[in-house]
Design a protein that fits this description.
Chain A is mainly beta and 110 residues long. Chain A contains no helices and 9 strands. The N and C termini of chain A lie far apart (35 Å). Chain B has no helices and 11 strands. In chain B, the strands form 2 sheets. In chain B, strands 2, 4, 5, 6, 9, 10 and 11 form a 7-stranded mixed beta sheet that branches. A 4-stranded antiparallel beta sheet of chain B has the order 1-3-8-7, with no helix packed on it. The chains are: A mainly beta (110), B mainly beta (122). The A-B interface holds A 1, 3, 32, 34, 36, 38, 40, 45-48, 51-52, 57, 89, 91-93, 96-104 and B 37, 39, 46-49, 51-52, 60-64, 96, 98, 105-110, 112-115.
């Protein structure tokens, strides 16, 4: 299975909004509403931010939102804060009954 | 609150088999509706799904690793384990254990261990 495609990096200023894309195929992102997003700070374990395309776990800020169109899912972070600077990974369930991750996106808050 | 803790050797030799254990506290590996999984991250690189085991004992593996991977669980010790054979330097990574509470696998792992670095070198 091939990794989902994410931009290597995105950046934004405090208070702005950014969007990270995650492109797969009809065998993963496009075929199921099981896309998750994870935030990872350096040296830390990943943290679940979004699941089932657009649902937020308890405790995750509503500044984080997810969506999907065809084979591409997106994570939007509004009102950027310094602590949002991290690596972000998408994942999807696949038709092979496994999970595949994206390559990761580094978010820089300018 | 589920807590997971990985344990195992930090250094293994090429061609050998890696064995890692994840100890679960605050919950049970036999609890209905939980997937227990392993994910790895080579230094400076992205996350890679290795596989999961359901509370029923059924397993799901990354097709690219399937021939070398076995995930099992020990309910008496409340642990689940990873075995990865025929190691090469490309298997050097931080290995995480994680869990997802769901009726079917989606990848939404919401509890993670802190990770353990495994280096494959002679």
């Amino acid at each position: 299975q091939s990794a989902l495609t994410q931009p290597a990096s995105v950046s934004g200023s405090p208070g702005q909004s950014i969007t990270i894309s995650c492109t797969g195929t009809s065998s993963d992102v496009g075929g199921y509403n099981y896309v998750s997003w994870f935030q990872q700070h350096p040296g830390k374990a990943p943290k679940l931010m979004i699941y089932d395309v657009s649902k937020r776990p308890s405790g995750v800020s509503n500044r984080f939102s997810g969506s999907k169109s065809a084979n591409t899912a997106s994570l939007t972070i509004s009102g950027l804060q310094a602590d949002d600077e991290a690596d972000y990974y998408c994942s999807s369930y696949t038709s092979s009954t496994t999970v595949v991750f994206g390559g990761g996106t580094t978010l820089t808050v300018l | 609150q589920l807590q997971l803790q990985e344990s195992g050797p930090g250094l293994v030799k090429p061609s050998e088999t890696l064995s890692l254990t994840c100890t679960v506290s605050g919950g049970s590996v036999s609890s209905t509706g939980y997937y227990w999984g392993w994910i790895r991250q080579p230094p400076g690189m992205g996350l890679e799904y290795i596989g999961t085991i359901y509370y029923t004992g059924s397993t799901s593996y990354n097709p690219s690793l399937k021939s070398r991977v076995t995930i099992s669980k020990d309910t008496s010790k409340n642990q689940f384990s990873l075995r990865l054979s025929s190691l090469t330097a490309a298997d050097t990574a931080v290995y995480y254990c994680a869990t997802e509470e769901a009726l079917f696998l989606t990848g939404a792992m919401d509890s993670w261990g802190q990770g353990t670095l495994v280096t494959v070198s002679s």
